[in-house]
Write a structure and sequence with these properties.
The chain has about 400 residues and is mainly alpha-helical. It has 2 domains: about 160 residues, Orthogonal Bundle (Cytochrome Bc1 Complex, Chain D, domain 2); about 160 residues, Orthogonal Bundle (Cytochrome Bc1 Complex, Chain D, domain 2), CATH 1.10.760. The chain is built from 16 helices and 2 strands. A two-stranded antiparallel ribbon has the order 1-2. Helix 10 packs antiparallel against helix 11 and helix 12 packs across helix 16. The protein is globular and about 70 Å long. The protein starts with a helix and ends with a strand.
Length: about 400
């Protein structure tokens, strides 16, 4: 008996369909809008590294090599034990895992991750710096971080890095006759010595100091997030590879992703390939016990406008028309009160505790806060609305967040 070609074809298609279902029985069906949202989060969608017009040395490999040495050199601190790498530990994703950063003293905020910050127009939790090089300089003079001062650092550059410095930035001025400890810092003796120096000497030392920051930034620009399981899943979705999707995600992780881009509204703040919009938000985070009131962007906005090293400063390499972020920023208003910058969620599972002063120990506590949207401290405006997620849904979101773990790509 002959079997028609049509019957054979239908039988083959049925077998293929059953096999596909067996291989991927829980394959979620993503809408066009959801697929677009997932594509927007995919690391492969990260644009090329943007230039920093305020730092003409930002992409100079010699500057990056010098900056890497400065980043890990503990001599650039008051006690000879603190470097940038003390708080930004490579093995911990360039953060430290502490509620509050520990330098020569204790700060009032926790360390932010570095990977991908070359894409951010604002640095620190309150955005008080507008470039990586300006950010690098802040802790150097902080009495509780590095605790040093400008002439001390200039002497160290002269003694240990002069040849490398001059190969990048040109001849160094003579600093041998300058006081060992002088700078516009909290220490009264160093501040008095700084004010006694001539304007020319202060300018020369400050230029060396600014160039230190630019070298460190050239290194930090190369610190980027690497692909995670989420990126494998997102790419497989876009390419229609069901088997790869199944291998990359569990059903709960896929459900958590759907909540993340949908009902849970996480992408309002945590969007783009870095999972942050690099803006500022008040999400009603409670104050940290024992610390002074922290008003966030309210104090950061005026600080960046007045910053000695901002994009419009004499130490910036940018033209005035290249500083649009600074010139047109919102600098005042009640809405700034209690706003903080959302950090990237990449590798978030390894970055406990959470929030700007480590107020939450676990992701479960973070999600419970977002789910209930409690009243904010002192009546600050709160952007949150209760989500009414179930306990199972919260667990699914956390399961998804675990898929964002991946390597941090940095020079060896």
């Amino acid at each position: 008996m002959k079997i028609s070609r049509t019957v054979i074809t239908l039988a083959v298609l049925l077998i293929i369909g059953v096999a596909a279902y067996t291989l991927w029985p829980h394959a979620p069906q993503w809408t066009a809008d959801e697929t677009a949202a997932i594509r927007a989060l995919w690391l492969g969608n990260l644009p090329p590294l943007p230039p920093d017009p305020s730092n003409q040395y930002g992409d100079d490999p010699r500057a990056a090599a010098l900056g890497q040495k400065l980043f890990f050199d503990t001599r650039f601190s008051a006690n000879g034990q603190v470097s940038c790498g003390t708080c930004h530990i490579p093995e911990l994703g360039f953060q430290d895992g502490l509620p509050l950063a520990q330098g020569v003293g204790t700060t009032t905020r926790r360390t932010m991750p570095i990977a991908g910050t070359a894409y951010s127009p604002w640095l620190f939790w309150d955005g008080r710096k507008d470039s990586q090089w300006a950010q690098a300089l802040g802790p150097m003079e902080s009495p509780v971080e590095h605790g040093g001062n400008r002439t001390y650092y200039a002497h160290l550059i002269d003694e240990y890095y002069r040849a490398e410095y001059e190969a990048i930035f040109g001849p160094m001025p003579d600093v041998s006759r300058l006081p060992r400890n002088a700078g516009p810092v909290a220490d009264l003796e160093a501040k008095t010595a700084w004010e006694a120096m001539t304007a020319e000497d202060r300018e020369n030392v400050t230029r060396i100091y600014a160039n230190m920051g630019k070298a460190i930034a050239a290194y930090e620009r190369l610190i980027l997030p690497g692909p995670s399981r989420f990126d494998t899943y997102a790419q497989a979705l876009m390419e229609g590879e069901a088997a790869t999707m199944q291998a990359a995600f569990t059903p709960d992780e896929a459900a958590g992703l759907r909540l993340f881009i949908g009902e849970a509204q996480c992408v309002k703040c945590h969007n783009g390939p870095l999972f942050t919009n690099n803006d500022f938000h008040n999400t009603g985070v409670p104050a940290a016990a024992g610390l002074p009131e922290d008003t966030g962007r309210t104090q950061g906005a005026p600080q960046v406008l007045a910053d000695e090293f901002n994009c419009l400063s004499p130490y910036s390499d940018a033209a005035e028309n290249e500083c649009a972020e600074l010139k047109f920023m919102v600098a005042e208003g009640h809405e700034l009160l209690g706003q903080f910058k959302p950090p990237s969620l990449r590798n978030v599972i390894a970055r406990a505790p959470y929030m700007h002063a480590g107020q939450f120990t676990t992701l479960e506590e973070v999600l419970a806060h977002y789910n209930t949207a409690p009243a904010t401290p002192d009546g600050h405006h709160n952007e949150l609305q209760p989500l009414h997620l179930s306990e199972a849904e919260i667990k699914q979101i956390i399961a998804f967040l675990k898929t964002l773990s991946g390597p941090v790509v940095a020079p060896p």
